[in-house]
From TrEMBL:
Residues 1-95 form the HTH arsR-type domain. One of its GO terms (molecular function) is DNA-binding transcription factor activity. SUPFAM superfamilies: Winged helix' DNA-binding domain. It comes from the Bacteria. Keywords: DNA-binding, Transcription, Transcription regulation. This is HTH arsR-type domain-containing protein. InterPro entries: ArsR-like_HTH, HTH_ArsR_DNA-bd_dom, Metal_resp_trans_reg, WH-like_DNA-bd_sf, WH_DNA-bd_sf. It holds the Pfam family HTH_20.
Length: 99
């Protein structure tokens, strides 16, 4: 993953509402969560939630699937692990105490 793509993911996580959305989806695990449940849990207007979900999908942090009339959101664990690995990749390389 290139630096610009990683910076875009981190920028999206830098917004409090989007961070709350991701934490909510992480709690749901692989089952995902209906958009309506996210809206109710976070108490945000539908249009605001849609905006935040769209931004998170654009950088690959989440995905959506429709099942009948319900739209579900899911964490993209591969993308989230890429962010974590990027941040930890060179942890302590210049600190000889970390051996």
């Amino acid at each position: 993953m290139n630096l610009d793509d990683m910076a875009a993911r981190l920028a999206e996580l830098g917004h409090p509402t989007r961070l709350q959305i991701l934490k909510h989806l992480m709690k749901a695990g692989y089952s995902g969560t209906p958009v309506g449940d996210i809206q109710a849990a976070l108490d945000v207007p539908g249009s605001t939630l849609s905006h935040h979900l769209s931004r998170m999908m654009k950088v690959g942090l989440i995905r959506q699937e429709r099942e009948s009339r319900t739209l579900y959101c899911f964490s993209n664990y591969d993308a989230i692990n890429e962010v974590i690995n990027y941040l930890m990749d060179e942890c302590c390389v210049n600190d000889e105490r970390c051996g």
